Automatic annotation (TrEMBL):
Name of this chain's protein: DYTN protein
Gene name as annotated: Dytn
InterPro entries recorded: EF-hand-dom_pair, EF-hand_dom_typ2, KCMF1/Dystrophin
Highest taxon in the source lineage: Eukaryota
PANTHER family, per the entry: DYSTROTELIN, E3 UBIQUITIN-PROTEIN LIGASE KCMF1
Segments forming domain EF-hand: 65-154
GO CC annotations, alphabetized: plasma membrane; synapse
Amino acid sequence: MQQISRMLMKLFQKARLEKPGQVDPRAAEFTLSLLVAMYDRSGTGYIKTRSAAAALISLSGDTLLAKYRAFFQFYAVPDGKGTLITRSALRSLLTDLNQILAIVGEGCTLSCVEVAVHDCFHGVLNAAIVEEKFLSWLKSEPAVLLWLPTCYRLSATEMVCHQARCR
């Protein structure tokens, strides 16, 4: 948790320099508290770096495609020919992302994670899939992750400014 805390301090310090006055000085503290609430409910003082990365990626302001690619990079395993994501890695990713919803009382059951893994690997004979298949599945907006594109679209519309006036 100390590593994550230091990383968050650096991250938000850089953000404050890039956007003066727009980043709360306690942002790192608040973010760490959120990560602890999501991933260290038993108070062990340990959070998996990969889990924290998944949460930060999903809550970032980046594009959906960039988020999806980052998920693949963090959860995929190297293979002799490239990088692949296994069923267990996808299960870990979905379980980690489900903790974001669980913190607000909206998490799904373990069975919905299993259904999503089965759906992603439908028709796949291998033990793992390539990035293109993974991205294609995510772009189909699986129910277990429907909140992610929805939140992205909501945040994207916040920046829209119309030059029309209503009467």
